[in-house]
Amino acid sequence: MCEIREYGRSCVQVCRRLHAMLDGLLDTLPPSQHASVRWEIGLLQEPIDREFTDPALRAIAQQPDHQGIGGNYPS
């Protein structure tokens, strides 16, 4: 996970798919493991804040993409 986050940090779609995966884990894992997943979500947010200085692009990178097709951009 950390390698994908590190090497994909400047790719909007990598950030979106990782966020979607982590959200899915929150939906399926027992609450006792949620803290670890939330920690990973926080680690994903740091490179998004650094890499995407344009607020509109940052908003896109922060939005999970469960389908992997780049849809559902904020309006």
What keyword list fits this structure?
75 residues; 0% strand; mainly alpha; globular
Q: Mind explaining what this structure looks like?
A:
The protein has one domain. The chain is mainly α and 75 residues long. The protein starts with a helix and ends in a 13-residue tail after the last helix. Helix 2 runs antiparallel to helix 3.
Helix/strand structural class:
mainly alpha
Report Rg: 12 Å
Written as H for each helix and E for each strand, in order along the chain, the element string is HHHH
Largest sheet: none
Our measurement of the CA-to-CA distance between the termini, rounded to an integer number of angstroms, reads 30 Å
Record field, number of beta strands = 0
* Domain unit count: 1
Uncertain residue ranges = none
The total of helices stands at: 4
The average pLDDT is 88
Strand content: under 5%
What gross morphology would you assign?
A: globular
Helix content: 55-70%
Short description:
The chain is mostly helical and 75 residues long. It has helices at 2-7, 12-28, 34-51, 55-62.
SSE diagram, text form:
Blueprint: H1 2-7, H2 12-28, H3 34-51, H4 55-62
